[in-house]
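S.,

Sequence below, as promised.
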Amino acid sequence: MESENKTKQKQIQIELDENTSQGEYVNFSIVTHSPAEFVIDFARMLPGMPKAKVKSRILMTPPQTKTLMLILQDNIKKYEGKFGEIKMVKTDGQKQFNFKIPGDTLPN
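The prediction came back faster than expected:
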C-alpha cells in the first residue's frame, strides 16, 4: 500500500481567470538574472517599430527556471516528433536568432 501511495502524483488545482485564459501574443523575450532569481520579459515587437512592449514579466528562482527549461526541452522534443523540426535561422553555420541585439543592451 505504501509503494502505491508513493507512485501517486499529487494534483494541483490551477485557477485560470477569463482574461488570463485569453493569453498574450509575444514574439520576443529577454532573460536576465541575479544570484537569487531569473527575470524573463515577454514582449511584442511590431514591424517598423523601434521598441518592443513588454507584455509580461516573470520572476523565478534558479531551480524553477531550470525546471522550466527541462519542461520546454521535453515539449519541444514531443512537438518536433509530431510536427517536424522547428527551423532556426542559420548564419555562419551556427543556429542564430533572426535578429541582432546590440551587446550593450542586456545587463549581463
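Residues 62-83 form the longest helix (22 residues).

Coffee later?
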